Amino acid sequence: QVQLVESGGGLVQAGGSLRLSCAASGRTFSSYAMKWFRQAPGKEREFVARISWSGGSTYYADSVKDRFTISRDNAKNTVYLQMNSLKPDDTAVYYCNTNVRGINYWGQGTQVTVSS
């Protein structure tokens, strides 16, 4: 069983920054890749970023590349998403995700709102 809890969302002006955190329970955190997704109102949930179990490999959606940075601290069972140069189009609920032995786990999400 894995539980994921996101935090760090809020309201920010365009061009600003936020750092999201996702705290994970369970002893298996450091063994699995972690991902961030987001879902804007009226749209499907979309992939944002992925980080390997060791943190040595990362991958980003084109829409956030060079603006967002995913990282992890396995000692703290936490994954982060540093978001810079935020745009109104980044407004969404952000979710962290992991897949453990074929089971997808999701957090409850954290709202990010970017005003123009």
- Radius of gyration, rounded? 13 Å
Task: Tell me about the largest β-sheet.
Answer: 7 strands, mixed
State the end-to-end distance. 40 Å
How much helicity do the residues have?
Answer: under 10%
Helix segment count? 0
How does the overall form come out from the CA principal axes?
Answer: globular
Mean pLDDT: 96
Q: Could you name the ranges where pLDDT drops below 50 across 5 or more consecutive residues?
A: none
Helix and strand element order: EEEEEEEEEEE
Strand content: over 45%
Structural class: mainly beta
Q: What multimeric state do the chains show? A: single chain
How would you explain this protein's 3D organization?
This protein is mainly β and 116 residues long. Helix content is 0%, strand content 53%. The chain is built from no helices and eleven strands. It has strands spanning 4-7, 10-13, 18-24, 34-39, 46-51, 58-60, 68-73, 78-83, 92-100, 103-106, 110-115. The strands form two sheets. Strands 2, 4, 5, 6, 9, 10 and 11 form a seven-stranded mixed β-sheet that branches. Strand 7 (68-73) and strand 8 (78-83) form a beta hairpin. The radius of gyration is 13 Å and the shape is globular. The mean pLDDT is 96.
How do you describe this structure in short?
By secondary structure, the protein is mainly β. It contains no helices and 11 strands.
Q: How is the topology of this model organized?
A:
Blueprint: E1 4-7, E2 10-13, E3 18-24, E4 34-39, E5 46-51, E6 58-60, E7 68-73, E8 78-83, E9 92-100, E10 103-106, E11 110-115
Parallel strand pairs: 2-11
Antiparallel strand pairs: 1-3, 3-8, 4-5, 4-9, 5-6, 7-8, 9-10, 9-11
